[in-house]
Design a protein that fits this description.
single chain, mainly alpha, Arc Repressor Mutant, subunit A, 2 domains, 5% strand
Amino acid sequence: MVCIRCKMVVASELENLGIQYKNLTIGEVEVSEDMSDEDKEKLDFNLRRSGLELMNNRKSQIIEKIKNVIIEMVHYTEDMEPVHFSEVLSEKLHLDYTYLSNLFSEVTGVTIQQFVIKHKIERVKELLVYDELNISEIAWKLNYSSVQHLSTQFKKVTGLSPTHFKTLRKKRRQSINEIG
């Protein structure tokens, strides 16, 4: 559950099944009382129809929590604070970062750092497309040490410089008056 719409779907399904919950956050639900196996199966079936799934495996739950913390920080935080993701993850999940890192790599096939970089680059693309911030402001907003660092990472992931990406994006769009 990585977005607000997902959260709304889960809340709706819980309500439809008459399952009371105390807390519903992105990626996690705390139910008021133990659920029967039948209710779990119904909920899982209904969630799967919406493209979601019920996570019962502890390792899968931890991986989802790691992803959700990173996504929340990169995509939904207005200005990222200069913190280390390792410290934030350890603090929020109450687990040792080495354990989290090894588990994440083992299950997903990528490191936490690679996952963070991919999401930061997607956020950079989004901000470039919005065309409201220049590259220096984007670098500052996403807590890059410099514009050069952002540009190097962007090119490594996308094969394009941020400026070239922005130029291509503008070339793809035509105003209504320009369309033959």
